[in-house]
Amino acid sequence: MAKLSKKRQAANAKIDATKEYSLNEAMALVKEVNTAKFDASVDVHVRLGIDPRKADQALRGTVTLPHGTGKVKRVVAFVTPDKEQEAKDAGADHVGLDDLIAKVQGGWTDFDVVVAMPQTMAKVGRLGRVLGPRGLMPNPKTGTVTMNVGAAVTDVKGGKIAFRVDKFGIIHSSIGRVSFSAEKLTDNANELLGTLNRMKPSSAKGVYMKSVTAASTMSPGVKIDPKSIA
Predict the structure, then answer these.
(1) Among residues 82, 78, 59, which one has the least CA distance to residue 125?
(2) pLDDT tens across 150-187, in order?
(3) What distances in angstroms separate CA 7 from CA 3, 15, 33, 40, 213, one per listed residue?
(4) Residue 203 pLDDT exceeds 80
């Protein structure tokens, strides 16, 4: 087992592993114990009391974080020629169809979100092998397959993120950066967690939010009391 650095040991010592902190306390603590020398991402990990193998419990959706994620999302828009200007005006970084598809097929994946029009999906579907494993395949459920490409691009640029439960019933999502104030991180976390609460499947039994943990990229996790979520 790798020996922990003095910084990490000091960070661990500041966290009571047996305690569940309020959301406000947790966000302040995540900032305090951060050991990274860069502006690390702050992530929330939510273990839900659901069975992702059941179709009605395979949660996925989107949420617009009030303060964004702190990362500028690079957006690709697969559109017909008549929609190219709309996508560009909304801030899409790369716009097109056949040439853009060929570029991605060639291995180019220098982007974070893909938006597509419904009528382009027959062609975009060929990119499943490239986009699927990276979680980049556009989907109507997340608002990334739409005729209203301008609004979709604007939403992504404005802090809209997609989330989906993994096979273990856990949702992992970035809610900002350690440079954010604790208040902004709390606002963003509340938005995500409140959305998950509202999406609770009617067939889910027992405790829904089993555990909530926040951590920055290179620092220890801080447990959050689910009851402290607004």
Answers:
(1) 78
(2) 999 999 998 888 898 999 999 999 999 999 999 999 99
(3) 12, 13, 9, 16, 21
(4) yes
Which pair of structure tokens corresponds to residue 93? 């970084």
CA 185, 189, 191 angle in degrees (round to 5)?
120
Strands 41-48 and 170-177: antiparallel
Q: Does the predicted model carry a pTM greater than 0.70?
A: yes
| Dihedral sign from CA coordinates of 172, 69, 67, 72 | negative
Taking the CB of residue 121, how many other CB atoms lie within 10 A of it?
A: 16
Tokens of 24: 């406000």
Of 229 and 91, the one with more pLDDT: 91
Joined together, the tokens standing for residue 12 give 């661990």
